[in-house]
Design a protein that fits this description.
four-stranded antiparallel β-sheet, 3 helices, EC 1.14.-.-, monooxygenase activity, monooxygenase, ABM_dom, single chain, Antibiotic biosynthesis monooxygenase family protein
Amino acid sequence: MELQKPYYAVIFTSTRTEGDNGYGQMAEEMEQLARQQPGFLDFESARDGLGITVSYWESLEAIANWKSNMDHRVAQRNGIKTWYSWYKVRICKVEREYEFTK
């Protein structure tokens, strides 16, 4: 992934409650919705007990608009009520990156 720097990363780290309870479907819907938002750049996610989802954005304004998106707000409320036992959100400015590929 080669993005124009600087850009912003929203790091969402979480632990889930037991059972799916509609989480899988909502997660897919939120990824697709995020990809349609102005300023969205990319998305990466992994879960093995601890879940880490990172979305990349052009600006803090784009992040704020995503946070206030009505469908996303419904998912946030369901997350607190049903899907997460804990979560933390970090917003970071990415000024430099590098990678290795074999």
